[in-house]
Amino acid sequence: MSFTNYQELIKMSDDIEYMASKLTLPHVNGTIPFILNQTQKNILKELDESDSKINNIYASRQIGISSLSALMFTHDAVFNSGKRIGVLSKRLIGNEYPRDLFNRWFQELSTMGVTTGLNIEVNNKGCIELSNGTKIKFANIDSSSLRGCTYSRLYIDNIETLDDKDIDNFMYSVLPTINSGKQGKATFFNTGHFQNNKIDTYQGINTYKFPWHTVSDPNYLVNVARTRSMLPKEKFECEYGD
Fold first, then answer.
1. Cα distance from N-terminal residue to C-terminal residue, the chain
2. Could you tell me the pLDDT band of residue 86, with boundaries at 50, 70 and 90?
3. Model pTM?
C-alpha cells in the first residue's frame, strides 16, 4: 500500500463522512456521488454521541436512511476486525439493496487501494465474510433471523413494517443477541412511521426524531409541501412527522 493510500485509509477510518464522499450510489442514469445531506450528518452525529446500546431513529421519508444504514455497517466491517454484524431489512426481498451497496463500495474502496490486503472470503445471499475476520449476516426482519449468535453491531432498517405483535416477538428474540460488551450496539431505523410505534414503550432505548421540517434541502421541502397538499393530515404526520 502506498503512503497516499495509507493516508486515505486512516482518514476514512476516522471520518465516515469523508468515506461517503469517495463512494457512489446507483441511479437511474448510472451512478451519482454519495454526498451526505445535512439530516444524514445530524443522524451520524447523534449516534456518535449516544451512550446507549440501542438507538432508535425516526426519519421522514426520502432522506436516504437505507443508504446511510449501509454506509454505517460498511464502515464498521472494513475498519474493524473480528466483528459479527447483523443487517436486517425488508429490502432484502427483491433488490437486496444493503448487500448490493456493500459489494459496490468494497469494490470502489479496493480500486482506490484503501482495502489492499482485505478480501471477501465468502459472498452469498445471506452472509459476507472478510479476511479480517468480520462477518456480516443479511436477513429479513424476523424474530428468528439472528438466533444462535451474538452480534457486536445490529442495523435494523424498515422496522416500521412490523405490527405490534411482531415487534414484541422481534425484540424478545433479537435484543439478547447484542453483545454485552461496550462495543455491542443496535440501531433501529423507522422511515415514515412517527406515531404510535411500540418500540417507544421499551426501556433503555434512545430515540431521535428527524421530521420533514428539520431537513434543510429546499428541493426536498418543496416536494414535501406538494405531498402534504395531497395527503390526509394524519397520514402525512405519520409518514413525514409533525
1. 50
2. very high
3. 0.89
